Amino acid sequence: MTVFGWLNDQVLRMAWLSDLVSAGVTAGGLDPASRLGGSVQFFVYDVVKIFLLLSVLIFTVSLGQAYFPPERTRRILGGRAGLGANVLAALLGTVTPFCSCSSIPIFIGFTAAGLPLAVTFSFLISSPLVDLASVILLASIFNWSIALAYVGVGLVVAVVGGTVIGRLHLESQIADFVRKAPVSDSDAAMTGAERLAYARDQVIEIVGRVWPYVLIGVGLGAVIHNWIPQEAITALLGQDKWWSVPLATLVGIPMYADIFGTLPVAEALVGKGVGLGTVLAFMMAVTALSLPSLVLLKRVVKMQLLVAFTGVVTGGILAIGFLFNALSGWFV
């Protein structure tokens, strides 16, 4: 456990980087314990750490994704139904696209191939909400118990959400062009060189897409961590406030960011005494219910199904937020 703890601190949390940045801030004439110096320390350390981890993790996860093209994933799910199929779809969602918008084309392919609505929606919810990279990043900022808890609740939301939507029998609410979309049967394996090139391109594409959100998230985190008094934060989002979970969910919906951009904000909020469930609700709302992804989803489903999807996922997020606030002592 001592070796594991050292590796966790030095590799994931990058304690060496924190010390290096702190020394640099001091050399620059700022006190890391002051508001300004602390903000610079928080910003530089989190930005460098997140981008280093993000690049390595995206490359590694993308190599795994190269073995699971949409056609192979569809074949794995094909012919399956029931709770087991929903669980499998949610698990497969963890090794596929990193944001909800990039999950929509795969959702279209699954629907056109005739997969049950429950299965496709379990995948659609899980794909942006839970991925292997998020586990490592969460562990690097919080701890392994919180990281694994987030993954667990994300999978629960995906499985339960897909199951409920399936039982509503809203197949008629899928846009007509989706069912007529061509389905590829190609499942050609990539060569080793092609997989490496694919992983490299994914790093360039995803980092290029998310870097503004990471910078904004880290900037907000630095402001919350060093400039906003804890009393002000807890008065609005304190664990004892019943409205904190609904408010965090509501605030998260208009935003668009990958989980990577929400982590610094979540880190700062937890440090200010905000309940773990409230923070998880915010993160899940941003990744699963962002307004841009709902607008894109509206193009492929009709309003009744969109409302059902939004309502089911929102209900799951609220339930999990309240539950984790009640049990946060187990994780923090």
UniProtKB/TrEMBL annotation:
Q: What would be one Gene Ontology cellular-component term for the protein?
A: plasma membrane
Q: Which domain of life is it from?
A: Bacteria
Q: Name the Pfam families on file.
A: ArsP_1
- What's the main place this protein lives? membrane
Keywords from UniProt, A to Z, are:
Cell membrane, Membrane, Transmembrane, Transmembrane helix
Q: Does the keyword Cell cycle apply?
A: no
Membrane association type: Multi-pass membrane protein
Where found in the cell?
Answer: Cell membrane
Q: Where are the transmembrane segments?
A: 42-68, 148-170, 210-228, 274-297, 304-327
InterPro entries documented for this protein? DUF318, UPF0718_permease
Say if the entry is tagged with keyword Membrane: yes
Entry's family note: Belongs to the UPF0718 family.
Q: What is this protein called?
A: Permease
Q: Which organism is it from?
A: Zavarzinia aquatilis
